[in-house]
Design brief:
single chain, mainly alpha, 9 helices, 208 residues
Length: 208
């Protein structure tokens, strides 16, 4: 109904993305060695640096998707077309980097293109909203909330010897994160009310 409301909903979408993706990828990163060793094979451990780099790029990519709803609401579809230039960069980057670096070259080309698209949308919407709008504070807040589960994961890693202990460790890490999330506010009262209105009930009345 208004530019301010679109901005508010965009911030909510990004926050939800942070709350879900950052802890999941943190857990993946912490338990990666045991996941590969137990579920797959130790011979695949050489791929760990590639996966760590991929996790970073995927997190950035997941945040980029949040620009789509305000883009459509504001009829800024031309930004999709303008961002197409980064797809060309991605193609050229693959042609250059793959012969030089192999698989990691493809990842660098695609990942850097994703970073460029995110940066492009970030600056374009700053012009639209005419103010700071990206919730950087919440981004670092969620990273801080992931520190307890990261510490727990590092401690538990030495005790993981089977798939059962691996799943148990992951569940404990998730529970600790949920407890941390419950104890500290992520969504202010205004945003909680907006989410409840869209859901049509008070399912997250106590969401913090």
């Amino acid at each position: 109904n208004s530019l301010a409301q679109i901005k508010d909903y965009y911030i909510i979408i990004v926050k939800i993305g942070f709350i879900v993706t950052i802890p999941l990828f943190t857990i993946l990163a912490i338990n990666l060695e045991n996941i590969i060793r137990i579920i797959y094979s130790e011979k695949y451990l050489v791929a760990m640096p590639l996966i760590y780099l991929g996790i970073l790029f995927v997190v950035i990519r997941s945040v980029t998707f949040a620009f789509t709803p305000p883009m459509m609401a504001l009829e800024k579809n031309k930004l999709f077309v303008q961002a197409g230039v980064f797809s060309i960069y991605n193609l050229v980057g693959n042609l250059i980097f793959i012969p030089l670096f192999g698989t990691i070259g493809a990842l660098i080309a695609t990942g850097s293109a994703g970073i460029m698209i995110f940066t492009f949308y970030l600056f374009q919407f700053k012009k639209v909203f005419q103010s700071a709008y990206f919730p950087w504070l919440n981004f670092f807040q969620i990273i801080l909330f992931c520190l307890p589960l990261a510490i727990m994961g590092i401690i538990l890693n030495q005790y993981i010897q089977s798939i059962y202990s691996l799943f148990s460790a992951i569940i404990l890490e998730l529970l600790l994160y949920c407890l941390t999330l419950y104890c500290f506010k992520v969504f202010p009262i205004k945003e909680r009310k907006m989410i409840n209105i869209q859901m049509g009930n008070n399912l997250i009345k106590k969401l913090k």
